[in-house]
Amino acid sequence: MDSIAVIEKILNIDGKKNAIVDFTQKAGGIMVFTVARKYQHCPCPHCGKNTSKRQDLRTYRQKTNLKHINLSDTRIIELSLLKRYFRCERCRRQFFEKFEFESEHGFHTKAFEAYVIASWGYLSGNEIARLSKTSPRKVYEILQSIDHAKINETGIEILSSLDEIYLWVDEHSFSGHDMILVITELKTKKLIAVLDGITNEKLESWINSLPIKVQLKIKGYATDMNKCYRNTLDAILSHPIHSVDKFHLFQEANRMVDDTRMLNSWLVKMNFVKADEIVSSGKIPKKLSKENIKEMNDASLWWNSEKSQAMRKYKEKSEQRLQGDQVNPKDLENSKGESIPYREITLDYFLETGYRKLFLTREKNLSGIQRLRLGQIFREFDYRGYLAESWTIKEDFMDAIDARDMKEVDRIIADCGTSEHHRLKQFARTLTNWYSGIRWYCEHSSEDFKFTNALTEGINNSCKVAKRQSHGFRSKDNYLRKIFVKCILKNAKKNLFPSII
Ligand SMILES: [Zn+2]
User: Fold this and answer.
1) What is the pTM of this model?
2) pLDDT of residue 278
3) How many A from CA of 97 to the centre of ligand 1?
4) Which of 291, 334, 396, 454 is such that its CA lies 20 to 30 A from the CA of 147?
C-alpha cells in the first residue's frame, strides 16, 4: 500500500474519484490538503446530465478551506478544493463541480458535521467551536440541522421489531412548569419517544400515531404514582398491565415513617404525650384543659390499658428485628478498630437531631451503633409506640415487595387500616388505590425482569445533566436535539452517518 493510499484512508477520501495534489501546514497546527477531482465529466446540479464541457479551462481554488477532521485542538485537518467551471450541454447553465464529501452549504465536510453532532453529546457548542477553531455560529448552524422528530421515528421502528412491549412513562421539567414526557421500553431498555408536553392529549395522540400492529403488542406499562397517565393509557389500550414502580412504593413507605417521626417529636416537645385526638386526626384540638394535659402525659396509665395491646405487638416486633445481630454496647469499634464508648442519647439531643436517617435506612443496612440508637429511641422516646409501629410496617412492607409476596402486602394493608394513627391509615389508602399495580408488579416481575423505572430515571437524569451543563436551554427544540444526540445517536451512529466509520 503506498503512502498516498494510506493518507486517503485516514482522510476518508475516495482515491478513485479524488486526488490529493498538495499539502501545506499553517500556524496553529492546521494541516491543509489540496484535493482535486479525477473525472473529466461532472453531473449538472440543475438537470442531472453528465457533462464534460468546460466554460473555461482554468481551475479555481475555493476561497475558504473546508473543515474536515479534528484530531485534537492542535492538529486540525482542512481541505482546500480545486474546482473546475462547467457548462451544461442540455440546460446551458454554468456551475462549479461538487465533491461527494462536501456538506450541503459547502462550508465544511460531512465528516466534520458528524464530528460536531457526535461531540455535542458531551461538549457545548462553543467548546466545539473553540477546539476546531471555527466560529460558534457555524457549529450551531450544523446543530440546527438535527431533526429531533427522529427520536419518535426510531422509537416506532424499535417497537415494531418486538413481540411484547412494556412501556414506561415519566416526566421531567424543561424549565419551570414546562414539562417533557419521556417514554421508554422496559425490556430493551431503549428510549422510545420524547413528547414536548405532559397533557393527556399529547400522550393520546402519540399512542394513536403508533401502527395498530404495535398498539396491540403493548402488554403492559408502568408509571410512578400518577393517576392521569394511568387513566389515559387504560382508556386507549386493550387489557394492558399497569404496574407501580417499586422504588416509588418504598419512597411512599419512607414518607409515612418520616411523617410519623416528625409528629412524634412534636408531641414529645409539646409534652402532649398521649394526645389521642391529635394522632388520630392529625389536627390540634383548640382547647385543652390542664387535666387533659396531665392525663396525656401519664404514659404508664395508657400502657396498662386495653388499647395498648396492638401497640405492644409492634414494640416487641421492632425489638426482635433490632436484636438480629446481638450488638453489645461494649464491643463497638470504629473503622480503625479502636473501641469507642457508647453514650445514651438524651431526650433533648433526640429532639434536636431527630435521627431522621436512622428511620429511613433499611434494617438490613443498619450498623451496630445505629441499631442500639434505634432500640433506645423505641424504648424511651416513643411513648405510644407509633414510631415502632410505622417502622415495623415499613420494614415488613419492603421485605414483602422484595419477596413479591402479595399475601403479606394484604396483611399490611389490613393492619394499617385498623391503626389509630392517621398517617398509617393514609398509607393503607394509598396502597389500596394502587393495589392492582402492586399485584401486577408482584406477579409479573421475575429475578431477571423487573418492572422498574431505573432506566427512565437514568435517561431523565442524563437529560437534566445536559440541561445543567449548558445552564438551561432557551429553546425547547434545542433541548430535544440534545436528548436525541445524548440518548439515541450513541446507539445508532452507524445508520445515521454512513460516511464515518
Ligand atoms: Zn443541466
Assistant:
1) 0.64
2) 59
3) 12
4) 454
